[in-house]
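[Primary structure, fold]
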Amino acid sequence: MEFKIEKWDALDLLVHAKNFHAESSDNEIPAFWGEYFSNESTKKIPGYLGVCAQGSAPNGQATPSDVFKYGIGCRASDVEGALNGKLPEGFELLHIPEYTWAIFKCVGPAGEAISDMWDRNYKEWLPTADYERILDYDIENYLPGDTDSPSYVCEICLPVRKK
């Protein structure tokens, strides 16, 4: 499993988000991506990040829940005016604190590669790693390229701390 550990400064992300239930999210999130790119108003904003607010319940409380927020978008700095409060309709600003991140390389068609790497993370990496996950924001980074290609590369980024 290919990964790297990096320290990142705080990030501001611009996302179009909605709440999902854990038990149905495997089917609903791919459909959400399809909606994002078929909607004229949202597809104008680069959608290369998938952001999961792991520990946020719909009421804003930071507690583990079977309901979580998932957003599609980009770095706020990619959109003129977003950092000055000029948010496009249907978008919100997420402030991600400074963290140490475990970044996992996923290779293959995007949906399969991301799903496989999440599974491997839970079964292989997390139980044996010198790091533990911080339940806050997880980021999927979809790099440029053909997302259906067997050689496509994307990333899963998890905030972590040393055990």
